[in-house]
Amino acid sequence: MKTLRLILGDQLNLKHPWFNDVDPEVTYLMAEMRQETDYVTHHIQKVVAFFQAMREFSNELKEKGHQVIYLQISSSDNPQALDEIIQNNIEKIKADKFEYQWPDEYRLDQQLIQICQDLSIDSEACDSEHFFTSRYELKDFFEGKKQLVMESFYRMMRKKHDIMMVNGQPDGGKWNYDQSNRKKWKGDPEIPHERGFRKNVTSLVEEIQASGVNTIGTIAPENFNWPTSRADTLSVLNYFCKNLLIHFGDYQDALHTDQYYLFHSRLSFAMNSKMISPKEVIDKVLDHYYEHTDQIHISQVEGFIRQILGWREYMRGIYWKEMPGYKDKNELDNHNKLPDFFWTGDTKMNCLHHAISQSLETSYAHHIQRLMITGNYALLTQTHPDAVDAWYLGIYIDAIEWVEITNTRGMSQFADGGIVATKPYVSSANYINKMSNYCSSCHYSHTKKTEDNACPFNALYWNFLDEKKEHFQNNQRMGMMLNLLNKKDKKELAALKERAQQIIAHPENF
Ligand code: FAD
Ligand code: SF4
Questions:
Q1: How far is CA 30 from CA 1, 49, 67, 381, 496, in A?
Q2: Domain 3-126 has CATH 3.40.1190.10
Q3: In the structure, which protein residues have their CB atom closer than 6 angstroms to any atom of ligand 1?
């Protein structure tokens, strides 16, 4: 039976059972499309990374003997929309059957269901065989429970998959070493340079530009450093185990003006495009750890495993539990726009200047930059979650809706009213100064409150708590913050609020 099988750009899983045997009756279809480059304005490095990885993947399939139809963004026979691409190629190869892997994005899932309903041939969908959990496993796990808690999901996952368990108990005696994951990095230990690839992607960049795709951010096309094949990915993972894992947990939350990646793995794009599975990453990290227990403390490893086995699977489960309604959630009723400096980095606030400029330059920021710098500012200035989502979805190389929206709208903007996070992640300058060196070279003073050179985060923080306090009355975890707010001198609070209003009205002046 002649079969056409679709491979989406984030389904680059060479280990999928589809590819176990070469079947002359099967043709694979891959397409770069304006449908996917244009639903939000992406970073140029993100578009390049996906197209480059797709091209390398299709070449690998061809080398193994599979038949592949590959449509480049500039191909004259590329209609740029998924429905037409599928229809045209079914006709071209005279397929009797169409098959696809379940997409991770709700939008594409719905589109493919519709496309299949409109086809005159049989169709079938299968698992992408990437995650530890199925789409609705988290939903079933929390069925009947009032509050979703990541920690209980994480413990279930550790037990179920027998990861860092000894005789039914957590290895090391503790489930979670989060408390020891909060060191500030002060120049020591030394951070090895990131594992780079220096790929020349000049012609791909030119092709994308000539096709009229709008992008943000910059790229050094002769020196493209993201992994775009399985071999690249394995080398990033090896590099991480050998050089970075040893300090990963300690400095997981640290921020520094001179260090973009610190001890982070830079594996998110490779995992989200499925060039490697989370199980392979965890197995490799654990193998390395168990061979080096004399050098690597368990807290470094648990901190890393929790991100992948815990948070990553948790976000996917929440996405499928809550979509499509999640996309419209705005529980704090925020309506402001993001300031223009989110697209330039041009602001006197040093932390924002660094986090945004780095994101524009590399398409990457680590989780505390995303959560406690840009996300914190967007929430404190009461920005509409649609605007925040669009920025995060566009700018980061790893941004795919299932993991972007749950982190941004949920964890960072509290727009879901507490499904993902039990309290909003907001802070004044105090936290930023504690975890970074940003404040020491800033135009503003992190200790001042209302003076002209006072850190804007201080006024914004108290103003936010005061304006949104009704939303948090029943939230126990906000009790201490609201108590402090109640005890604030009325005059001081009024002055803080006045300054916050100026910042919100004219962010470009700060
Ligand atoms: P490391 O710090 O080395 O962590 C290892 C891996 O753990 C990551 O590669 C990632 O796969 C996983 N991980 C860590 N934290 C999370 C998390 N909160 N949710 C899911 N997986 C996690 N991650 C994305 O993959 N795509 C996104 O679009 C995305 N948007 C985010 C938006 C906000 C506001 C925040 C706070 C976080 C977001 N994250 C997102 C999570 C996290 O910031 C990135 O996964 C991480 O920075 C990627 O860099 P890394 O590979 O060096 O991660
Ligand atoms: Fe950011 Fe305020 Fe510190 Fe400046 S003083 S770096 S604006 S937190």
A1: 20, 15, 11, 42, 55
A2: no
A3: 264-268, 271-272, 307-308, 311-312, 315, 366-367, 370-371, 375, 392, 396, 398-399, 403-404, 407-408, 411-412
